[in-house]
Amino acid sequence: MKEPLPIDMENARRFEMRWLILRTLHAAQPSGTSEVMIRNAIEPVILDVTLNDIRRELDYLEERELIAVTHRDSPVWRAKINNHGIDIVEYTVDCRPGIARPKKWW
After folding, report:
1. What pLDDT sits at residue 49?
2. Is 82 inside a domain boundary?
3. Which is the most buried residue in 31, 41, 89, 99, by most CB within 10 A?
């Protein structure tokens, strides 16, 4: 009998953080929100999340063309979900690996 593969906890944490960021930005439509508000929304789920973690994942999601990040030259970044990010959250398009979007159950 094959043993199950070990879970890479760091990857799982990052993938979950990306999904939570997308959900937060979806809820913050149409204006988007700050990285501080994103952290506040994620902290109950990922207790040790930092602003550096949030910024790293905002960069990733922006490179995937799911969000837009503004105010990078100010102390607090802002982000806004775009139409493709909305489609990911609303399950109208497939989600490539790298984001821990739960399977659709309805």
Report:
1. 95
2. yes
3. 99
pTM over 0.85: yes
Reported as a single tens digit per residue, the pLDDT across 18-61 is: 999 999 999 999 999 999 999 999 999 999 999 999 999 999 99
Higher pLDDT, 85 or 2: 85
Q: What angle do CA 47, 77, 81 make, to 5 degrees?
A: 85
CB atoms within 10 A of CB 70: 11
**Which amino acid appears at position 94 of this protein?**
D
Structure tokens belonging to residue 78 = 């802002």
Residue 38 lies in a domain: yes
CA distances from 91 to 11, 40, 52, 56, 87 (A): 22, 25, 28, 24, 6
Residue 73 falls within a domain, yes or no? yes
Q: How many CB atoms lie within 10 A of CB 75?
A: 7
